[in-house]
Amino acid sequence: MIVLNEIEKFVKNGLTKIWILNQVSLEIKEGEFVTIMGPSGAGKTTLLNIIGMLEEANGGEYFFLDEPVHQLNERRRSEIHKQYMGFVFQAYHLIDDLTVYENIETPLLYRKVKGKDRQSIVADVMDRFNMVAKKGLFPDQLSGGQQQLVGVARAIIHKPRLLLADEPTGNLHTKQGEQIMELFKELNDEGVTIIQVTHSEKNASYGSRIIEIVDGNIRSDSPV
Q1: Of 50, 172, 175, 181, which has the fewest Cβ atoms less than 10 A away?
Q2: Cα atoms found within 13 Å of the Cα of residue 176, Cβ hemisphere only
Q3: For the whole model, what pTM was predicted?
Q4: Domains (ranges, CATH) in the chain?
Q5: Helices 100-110 + 115-128 axis angle, to 10
Q6: Residue 149 · residue 131 · CB < 8 Å
Q7: pLDDT tens-place values along the chain, 224 residues long
């Protein structure tokens, strides 16, 4: 599904390059549940953002489902992102003035799904997440765990083949975090490929493979 060949990311400070990722090569097969770990500043989130096409690499090759992402224009990258990927952020990124229902519905509006079909799809997802009673509430009326559940529901509403999660339980207490991770495991069992960035060894135990990044380089890549 994903092939990275010598991916580079750097920022320039005068004539000096400060490396964020240094020739990272990686392959992720469809159906895997991969965890990216490492100290703060190691380049984990940058790698996730490059895979999710939220950032561009400075060098190297990136193939997604055999398409050469590094050669595609911004419009095509955006199309692939919307069609195949869902993103779960640590900070939720819900739209404050939209209700729970409207936040979850948003990706379907981008895809121009018809009204009746949207209603049916949103109803199914809200039922799965036990959110029907909260559909009319706004984000500031929800707990952190509830907001993150809305974020996950929004990320999977269009049935992505790849789910990217950046510290998805970082702001949650233990029980809420376990609920999110059990949901990820369930989605993975249904065939969704998952890549998560986390500092939590417990969260990593839900996956099948751990990639450790230190100073922009892959230090280890091993099964759980």
Answers
A1: 175
A2: 16
A3: 0.91
A4: 2-223 (3.40.50.300)
A5: 130
A6: yes
A7: 999 999 999 999 888 999 999 999 999 999 999 999 999 999 999 999 999 999 999 999 999 999 999 999 999 999 999 889 999 987 778 999 999 999 999 999 888 889 889 999 999 999 888 889 999 999 999 988 889 889 989 998 988 999 999 998 887 888 888 888 998 999 999 999 999 999 999 999 999 999 999 999 999 999 99
Query: Residue 53 is encoded by which pair of tokens?
Result: 């096409």
Strand order in the sheet with 209-214: 85-88, 162-166, 193-197, 33-37, 209-214, 217-223
Token look-up 């390059």 returns 17
Indicate the residue type of 66.
D
